[in-house]
């Protein structure tokens, strides 16, 4: 990865950051990746095809519907937005979206599919002023951050940039679901360094950041490699599972919603 000479100056910290292919890459020099491709950069172009399209469509529709019912239209930060698939759908639903990711390869795909310019950034050091966004979403990222201190710092940063009256939605893997260890061995983006983050750890981290109360939802039960012919049946089962108090604890995702007072 060759850093270009074009840079942007941060007035807040005085640090200069490179602009690569038109994308501000605002990761501090001590945390920038080595100039070799790997990890998410290596799979960025094929990332969206790692799961069957009908399953991807199901979860995109599910997430956008959930977000639309709880988050006002306005400027939203998509933390760890990857290739921008969710951001694209949110824009179609009437949101203005700014996406971040630490992978330049993913950011390049993000920019190619959306009308916004994403920003290279780490979740625990978001380069935005406090209370800058009406909403913040973070989907399937925390288990990649993995380290306890970094997870806690990332939660604090997401809450910091959320304005009063705004909504933060964190949608991540549920460690109680026994399917995740199986799936995570199949997809190329998981290297084995991931850690499934318990719900209590997420809630505790948010409370340390100043959050007074959270709402918790258990969502998802459709397996990622279900055949298309079985999808309607699994969608019906998923809706049933999400309504049953004891059973829904095994759902695929923990979804935490915070409204900032």
Provide a descriptive summary of the structure in words:
It contains nine helices and ten strands. It is α/β, with parallel strands linked by helices. It has one domain: Vaccinia Virus protein VP39 (Rossmann fold, 3-Layer(aba) Sandwich). The strands form two sheets. It has a seven-stranded mixed β-sheet, with helices on both faces. Strands 1-2-3 form a three-stranded antiparallel β-sheet, with helices on one face. α2 crosses α3 and α6 crosses α8. The longest helix is centred in the first third of the chain and has 18 residues. The chain is globular. It starts with 6 loop residues before the first strand and ends with a strand.
Features:
261 residues, alpha/beta, Rossmann fold, 9 helices, 21% strand
CATH topology: Rossmann fold
Protein structure class: alpha/beta
Summarize the biggest pleated sheet.
7 strands, mixed
Radius of gyration from the alpha-carbon trace, in angstroms: 18 Å
What is this structure, in a nutshell?
With 261 residues, the protein is of the alpha/beta class.
Sequence-ordered SSE layout with sheet pairings:
Blueprint: E1 7-9, E2 16-20, E3 23-24, H1 40-43, H2 53-70, E4 75-79, H3 85-92, E5 96-101, H4 104-113, E6 119-120, E7 133-139, H5 142-145, H6 148-160, E8 162-173, H7 180-183, H8 199-208, E9 215-219, H9 231-243, E10 253-259
Parallel strand pairs: 4-5, 4-7, 5-6, 7-8
Antiparallel strand pairs: 1-2, 2-3, 8-10, 9-10
Helix pairs in contact: 2-3, 6-8
């Amino acid at each position: 990865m060759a850093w270009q000479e074009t840079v942007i100056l941060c007035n807040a910290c005085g640090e200069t950051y490179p602009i690569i292919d038109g994308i501000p890459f605002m990761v501090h020099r001590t945390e920038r990746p080595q100039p070799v491709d790997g990890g998410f950069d290596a799979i960025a172009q094929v990332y969206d095809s790692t799961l069957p399209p009908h399953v991807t469509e199901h979860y995109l529709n599910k997430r956008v519907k959930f977000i639309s019912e709880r988050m006002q239209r306005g400027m939203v930060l998509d933390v760890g937005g990857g290739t921008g698939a969710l951001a694209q759908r949110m824009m179609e639903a009437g949101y203005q979206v700014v996406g971040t990711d630490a992978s330049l390869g993913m950011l390049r795909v993000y920019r190619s599919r959306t009308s916004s310019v994403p920003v290279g950034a780490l979740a625990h050091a978001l380069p935005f002023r406090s209370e800058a966004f009406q909403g913040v979403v973070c989907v399937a990222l925390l288990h990649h951050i993995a380290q306890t201190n970094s997870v806690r710092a990332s939660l604090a940063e997401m809450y910091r940039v959320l304005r009063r009256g705004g909504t933060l939605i964190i949608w991540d893997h549920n460690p109680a679901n026994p399917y995740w260890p199986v799936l995570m061995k199949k997809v190329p983006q998981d290297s084995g360094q991931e850690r499934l983050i318990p719900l209590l750890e997420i809630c505790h981290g948010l409370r340390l950041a100043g959050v007074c109360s959270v709402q918790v939802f258990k969502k998802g039960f459709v397996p990622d490699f279900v055949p298309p012919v079985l999808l309607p049946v699994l969608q019906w089962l998923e809706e049933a599972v999400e309504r049953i108090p004891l059973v829904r604890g095994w759902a695929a995702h923990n979804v935490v919603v915070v409204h900032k007072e």
